Amino acid sequence: DDDTFSNVFCENSKKLINVHLFALAAKYYSLSNLGVCTPLEDICEALRGDNQGATGIKTDEFMNNKKSHEVQVMSELVDTIANYCGIKQVIDIGSGKGYLSSFLSMQYNLKVYGIDSSNTNTNGAHERNRKLKKHWKAYQSRGRANLKSQRLEKANDRPVESESKCEAINEKPLNNDSSLQSQDQVTIQDLVPSRGREIAASETSKQTEVALVAQTQSDESRLSEEVLSILNVLPADAVEVFSSSQCNCGELCEEEKAQRKMASLKAKASTSSESNLYFPLTSCITAETELSDIITDLEDCMMVGLHTCGDLAANTLRIFTAKPEIKAVCSVGCCYHLLSEQFENQEDCPENVWGFPMCQYLKDKGWCCGRNARMSACLALERVAVGQMLPTESLFYRAVLQVIIEEIYGVTKSDRHVGKTFSKSSSFIEYVRKSLKKLELDDSKLPDSCVMDYYEKYKHRMNELEAFNMLKVVLAPCIEVLILLDRLCYLKEQDNIAWSGLVKLFDPVKSPRCYAVIALKKQSC
C-alpha cells in the first residue's frame, strides 16, 4: 500500500516525525526483503549440476579472516561459472595484491590476468604470489586431509541424499534450443549444464583420452600432479628455485638429455596454453579500455572484480557487455561515495560515461543520489546490529572541525582530505592542528583556547550526532539497493545477455559489501 509509510515525514515541514515507521520502511525496501536476489546455492546447483566442488584448502592460513571468507566463496563460484562456460581465462579487474587472482590460479588451475591501476599493488602481488607458491604444497597437503575428514563425517548421511539428487537431475529434461536465450523467460533453474554437455561433445579425441586417463588416477596422485604442474608453470619470478638430487644428469647420454629436455618443454608448453598462470598487470581501466591492448593472448574468458572501487564496478559491466570474448561477469562493487553521477555537478565533470545511473530508466528520470547519500550507502547496518558501533567520537571531531574551518577560514569546499588523523591524535587540539596542516591552512591564527571553546560549545550535541548517524545506517541498505538495481537493470536492457542477477555472496558482518552482480552471455554472443 502506497499510504503505509506516508506518515514518516511531516507533509509541510518534511521533517522526520515517526522514527519507528522510518525504520520499518527502510527494512521493507532493503535488498534482503525485496525478493530480487538469487540464492547462491541455487546458482551453484544450476551451473554445477551434480558435480560438487570442494577444495579443502583453508584460505585463512594466508589471509585475514575477512579476505579469506571473500576469496573462498567467490573463487568457488567463479570456477563454477568458468566450468559451465567452458573457459579457462579469467580477468580480475582491480585485483589489488592478487588475493583472489592467485587463489583462482593455484587452486582452480585457471589462467588469470590481474589488472590494477597501482604499480605498487602489482609489485606486491608478484611478491605475495612468490611467497604463496613457496608454501602451496603444504596447503595442498592440509587440504587433502581436510577433505578426507569431511568425507568421513558425511559418509553415513550422504548415500540416500545423493541418490535422490541424481534421480532428480537425470529426470529433468534439457532443452538446448531454448536455454539461455531470453532474460525475461530464463530463471536460474534453467541454467542446468546443457552448455557443458555441448562443450564436452566438441572436445578433441586427445582431450578425451587425457580425461579418461585422469579418471583412473587416485585423488592423492592427481593432487600431487596438480602441485607439480603449478611449480613448473608459474612465471619465473613467482617460483622458488629447487633442485632434484635424485637424478644424476651427468650420467645420462647426450641423446637422452635432449629427449628429456624436449619432453619437458612440450609438457610445459601444453600446460601453459591451458591454465595455471597468474599475471599481475598495471593498467587503468575505463569503459573504453581495449583489453586486447593489455592482454595479447585474449581469448574467451570471464571478468571478475572483488570490491571494485567506485566507477570501476560500472565500467566492468560496460566492458563485459561490449566485448564478445567476455562470456560471463561476477562483480562485487564498493566505495559508492566515489561514484560519478551524471546529474550531480555536471559543470565540474564533462565526461559522458558515468558511474550512476547506468540504466536507461533512471537516466530518463534524471535520478541523482548525491554524495551524502552515497556516503551513507557505505555504512554497515549488519555490523552495527551485532554491536560494532559507529566511531561517534571521531565523527564528532570531524563535524566540529568543519564548523571551525567554515567560520574561521571561510572554507566551505576543499579537494583535500583529513584522512585517518583521528587515530593518530591524542586530543582534539592535536587533531585540529594536524588536520589544518593537511588542508594547508594556517593554524597559527587559531589558539588552543579557541579550539577548546568550539569543542565545549558542541559537546552536549554529541548524542544528536550519534542519533543522526544511526538513522543514516538504517537508511544505508535502501541506497545500496538503488545502486545495485541500477546495474542489474542495465544488464537486463542488453540484448546479448542470457541471464543476470544479484547474488548475496558474503556474510555481511564479515564483509558488508556482500552482493555480486552476475551475468552470462547468450551462447551465440
Structure description:
- It holds the Pfam family Methyltransf_32.
- There is one protein chain.
- This protein is α/β, with parallel strands linked by helices.
- Among the domains are: 19-142 and 275-387 and 475-521, Vaccinia Virus protein VP39 (Rossmann fold), CATH 3.40.50.150; 392-471.
- It has helices at residues 19-28, 31-34, 40-48, 65-85, 99-108, 119-154, 158-171, 194-201, 205-215, 219-233, 254-274, 291-294, 311-322, 360-364, 371-377, 381-385, 392-409, 428-438, 448-458, 462-492; strands at 89-93, 111-116, 278-282, 301-309, 326-334, 497-504, 515-521.
- A 7-stranded mixed beta sheet has the order 3-2-1-4-5-7-6, sandwiched between helices.
- Helix 1 (19-28) packs parallel to helix 20 and helix 6 (119-154) runs antiparallel to helix 10 (219-233).
- The longest helix has 36 residues, at 119-154.
- It has 20 helices and 7 strands.
- The model is unreliable at 158-182, 192-252 and 261-275 (pLDDT under 50).
- Helix content is 50%, strand content 9%.
Blueprint of the fold:
Layout: H1 19-28, H2 31-34, H3 40-48, H4 65-85, E1 89-93, H5 99-108, E2 111-116, H6 119-154, H7 158-171, H8 194-201, H9 205-215, H10 219-233, H11 254-274, E3 278-282, H12 291-294, E4 301-309, H13 311-322, E5 326-334, H14 360-364, H15 371-377, H16 381-385, H17 392-409, H18 428-438, H19 448-458, H20 462-492, E6 497-504, E7 515-521
Parallel strand pairs: 1-2, 1-4, 2-3, 4-5
Antiparallel strand pairs: 5-7, 6-7
